[in-house]
Predict the 3D structure of the following.
Amino acid sequence: MRYAIIFALQAEEDLLALRANERREVLDAIEQHLRYEPEKVSKSRIKRLDAMEWPQYRLRIGEIRAFYDVIYAADQGIVEVIAIRKKTSAMQWLAAFGRKTE
């Protein structure tokens, strides 16, 4: 199945804050890894976030982390990219804005 990819306003702002070469790397990785198998967990690239209701997943792109959710509506899957952060600030963002499961 081909997933639609949408960017939250925060993710768009985060993307624009990156240098051009980093932005291209992030967009290429999102297309490559999230377009067809966004839930395929791997040891080094995609991680399902344990005990997190929101966001559900993290994609590692070098020193950058993209947080996203997978949503199913009717017969289509949607990947919503929520935030894109440098590795150094990713955990702080997750602690401040992520929602843990109860």
